[in-house]
Structures are given as C-alpha cells and as structure tokens.
Amino acid sequence: MRFSSGLRGVALAALAFVSCMAEARAESLNDALIEAYRKNPTLNASRAGQRATDEAVPQALSGWRPTVNAQGTAGVNETYSGPSALFGTYNDTAGTQENLTIKLDQPLFRGFRTIENTASAEA
To answer: Could you tell me which of 53, 37, 52, 60 has the C-alpha nearest to residue 114?
Structure first.
C-alpha cells in the first residue's frame, strides 16, 4: 500500500505533535509563578541587593562590641664557649623568652556614632 505525499505529511506532522506532547508536562499556575520567581535574574539581583542592605544593621551594631588584640613572641637564647687556651674553662648558657600581650577595648561612648549609624542602617 502506498501513501500519497499529502497523507505522508499529515502522518509526520501527527507523529511530531504526539512526540512533543510526551515532552510537555502540566503545571499549576502556582508552580509556574514559583519557577519564574526563582529563575528571574532581575529578582535575584534585587534580593542580593536587599541582603547587602540588611547587613548594614549588624555592622552598625558592631560599634558596641569589644575588640581583642593579641600579640606574642617566643625565643631561645643559647651561648656556647669552648675551652680557652688562657683560662681552660667552658661556659654553656641557655634560656627561653616568652611574651604574650592581650588587649581588650570596650567602647563606652563614641560620640553617638554607634547610635546614629544603627538608626541610619535600620531606616
């Protein structure tokens, strides 16, 4: 049995339509809005900008927090001297040195800077 070219074209179009329908999936309006909200680059950039703005409040509040600085040194001193032709003695001295400095600064009053910076960041 032989198909005409018109019938063959209709059969191919129907086959292509059926194969496309297998790829399509139904989704609710709510799912479509969620996907659009999640993948929209403009909205993602706006959310990133909002997160940066929100970070200003903790930075302003950090004016009340203390700062801690620590500095330490350690060393070894060793001196050896061997037998001397004149005195015939041998000296051996060794020692260590350790030093640790910790500094804690707690701001009590900063000229209202922390209060003003916090109010500005919250606004």
So the answer is: 60
- 113 contact partners, CB below 8 Å, separation of at least 6: 63
Q: pTM of the predicted model, to two decimals?
A: 0.42
Whole-angstrom distance, CA of residue 8 vs CA of residue 2: 10
Q: Residue 96 in contact with residue 112, Cβ under 8 Å?
A: no
Neighbouring residues of 27: CB distance < 8 A, sequence distance ≥ 6: 35
Helix (H, G, I), strand (E, B) or coil at 5: helix
CB atoms closer than 10 angstroms to residue 56 = 14
Q: Which residues pair with 71 in a beta bridge?
A: 101
Query: Distance (Å, rounded) from C-alpha 118 to C-alpha 110?
Result: 13
The string of pLDDT tens digits covering residues 99-119 is 999 999 998 888 899 899 989
CA–CA distance, 114 with 108 (Å, rounded to integer): 10
Residue 102: helix, strand or coil by DSSP?
Answer: strand
Separation between Cα atoms, residue 51 and residue 59, nearest integer Å = 13
pLDDT of 89 reads 67
